[in-house]
């Protein structure tokens, strides 16, 4: 069964004015779609074709001969996860268990935002900023290119895509403004809460 491009959880114009329809047309419709196509081409007629996306990622991680498979599979997963991390009229303050876990780990929500933004902004080149569950608490991490927390045994709760194609049409070189907007206007805390329950 071929891997498929999952539908966006909202219309392509639903995140405006924060992320434009034009950005989603390219980011989802071209970049994400290309990773799906490339992955299917790379695993066709191999045992990997019958595995789940997570199984593929874990089975080829660290294998230099399978770097192309890993990069495309991980980017399919990362993008599918990232779209869920946002919603129209998102942002604001988390509540319940997420708020408690953030306060326990970082001291305050403002401190969490500061550390998350720093991780995203200081990720050199392309990559991702993450809030993860690990070792019984929450941590912030950043990964380069297609790397992702699951290969380090961590559970992803939230991610911000800091590849330039995620923001350049709308924010040009202003990555800090994009990350600030993501936190203030788009974060889907319900999705974060659901991930925390599963961690």
Automatic annotation (TrEMBL):
Q: What class of enzyme is it?
A: oxidoreductase
Domain Manganese/iron superoxide dismutase N-terminal, which positions?
A: 3-87
Q: Nuclease among the record's keywords?
A: no
The signal peptide stretch is: none
What is the protein's known function? Destroys superoxide anion radicals which are normally produced within the cells and which are toxic to biological systems. Catalyzes the dismutation of superoxide anion radicals into O2 and H2O2 by successive reduction and oxidation of the transition metal ion at the active site.
Its family remark reads:
Belongs to the iron/manganese superoxide dismutase family.
Q: What is this protein called?
A: Superoxide dismutase
Q: Which organism is it from?
A: Defluviicoccus vanus
